[in-house]
Write a structure and sequence with these properties.
Helices cover 57% and strands 3% of the residues. It is mainly α. The radius of gyration is 24 Å and the shape is globular.
Length: 460
């Protein structure tokens, strides 16, 4: 017996083929009507002939098509099969009401507050401050709190209007991987709250932040184990479908180290050491799993080529794990008490630990730089034409990359590199504004929150 892509057993003798001229996806909308979305025209017999587009052969055909430069182009569709068939990329496609559109309000929306929170942290960490810059960062932080709260309300509205969407969103083979972005948004809120909202002499709020940190560690550990356990048991992904979003479930627990690097030096010595140890443990777990995922990512790129151009910005997600680990190494080492000496013999003291932290940070920074170059070349060589929420991957992971560069520059006291990071920060701000503009535009013209255009459909 063989199995199809959904995991159901089939027999070779009972395999059926679709006899319609054009295969199509079917998306039920909230009014229980059915809209068909065509995929591609059937190819004629000849050198480029593909086998019938069964579940068994479609993935193989897509690999060969992508390698031979004739992969399916998502902006092209057909409207040749009557009124029931709609090209989701047609600007004249039917407009939907807010109730129907909320059905497609996905977890990937939390990449917006995740990136906005990262921007506020980047503003705070700038090596060249000017009067009013911190106030701008505070404004961005407040806006991010408003954005996060609004998205939580919107997500709850979706689940209220469309019963059963909550479980479906968590178990969906694509949207489910974006669920961790909710916790990543919380991580940026915690760290930016520490930077902007908690006074240095407020003992009570320090204890609150410490309690939030430990709760975050426990919850994200459960998430990392639970979500991957479900994916291993319920889904059957081929190597050619590998995308950087597979790293996301381990990302929240990894950012525990980043949170620790921010709050450790504000805590009393007796609590700072356990926080640093926990942060290092979580950071190590996250980086280790990410490195294992990198092996699959490189294998996918070698065997199936680059992803569809509409999803190439997602490759910037690979920049994040080593970058945030480099940032956490330096931050946690600096967060240790100056009197820290485990054996009390002066052999392995805090200063030696800080030296090795910088060495490790530089080592990991180079890996981030390599992934940044791969993602940049891939995206520039074939830019996406339609907005997807995955575009925010061009902001948040690169924020970690710039923050790590700033930390390394400060450790080496290099004014030249610090000025380079200022230029990098300006580029990131421009990228944020560009993505945000396209995000708002896509909502207005219904390029997202529309059937077949969001992360609740498998299209790569």
């Amino acid at each position: 017996m063989e199995r199809n892509l959904a995991g159901a057993p089939i027999s070779k003798g009972s395999t059926s083929y679709d006899t319609s001229p054009t295969p199509s996806f079917t998306f039920p909308d909230s009014e229980r009507t059915t809209i068909h979305y065509p995929l591609d025209e059937k190819r004629p017999e000849g050198p480029d002939y593909e086998r019938p587009d069964t579940q068994l052969s479609s993935s193989e055909n897509s690999i060969f098509a992508m390698k031979e430069g004739r992969g399916k182009d998502v902006e092209r569709g057909n409207n040749m099969h009557g009124e029931d068939h709609i090209d989701v990329n047609d600007p004249n496609r039917p407009k939907l009401g807010i109730r129907q559109r909320m059905h497609h309000f996905t977890w990937a929306w939390f990449t917006l507050p995740m990136s906005t929170g990262g921007l506020s942290l980047l503003i705070y960490a700038q090596p060249h401050q000017f009067p009013g810059l911190r106030q701008i960062g505070l404004f961005v932080y407040i806006v991010n709190v408003i954005i996060f709260t609004s998205l939580v309300v919107a997500m709850l509205t979706r689940f209220f209007l469309h019963q059963g969407d909550f479980c479906k969103s968590l178990t969906h083979p694509r949207e489910g991987f974006f669920f961790p972005t909710f916790f990543l948004s919380i991580a940026t809120l915690v760290t930016s709250t520490q930077r902007y909202a908690i006074p240095d002499d407020d003992i009570a709020l320090k204890w609150v932040i410490q309690a939030i940190f430990w709760a975050y560690v426990v919850i994200t550990l459960i998430l990392a184990v639970g979500q991957y356990s479900y994916v291993f048991a319920a889904h059957n992904f081929g190597l050619q479908t590998m995308m950087p979003t597979w790293i996301l479930p381990i990302f929240p627990i990894m950012l525990s180290g980043t949170i620790a690097s921010v709050i450790a030096d504000t805590q009393p010595d007796i609590t700072a050491v356990p926080i640093v140890i926990a942060g290092m443990t979580c950071q190590g777990l996250g980086l280790s799993v990410a490195v294992m995922m990198y092996a699959h990512m490189v294998g996918r790129l070698m065997s199936a080529g680059l992803p569809n151009r509409e999803h190439r910005p997602g490759l910037f997600m690979n920049v994040g794990p080593p970058a945030f680990t480099a940032l956490a190494f330096i931050g946690m080492a600096n967060g240790l008490p100056d009197s820290f000496d485990r054996e009390m013999d002066g052999f392995i003291d805090v200063y030696l630990i800080r030296t090795f932290a910088v060495i490790g940070a530089v080592f990991l920074w180079a890996l981030s730089l390599w992934w940044f170059g791969i993602a940049f070349v891939a995206t520039i060589s074939s830019p996406p034409k339609y907005f997807h929420l995955g575009w925010w991957a061009m902001v948040f992971p690169n924020t970690g990359f710039i923050l790590a560069t700033i930390s390394i520059a400060k450790e080496f006291r290099s004014s030249t590199v610090q000025w380079v990071t200022t230029g990098m920060s300006i580029c990131l701000l421009s990228t944020y504004c560009f993505v945000f503009y396209n995000h708002v535009r896509a909502v207005i013209i219904q390029d997202i929150m529309y059937p077949g255009r969001d992360e609740d459909v498998e299209d790569h």
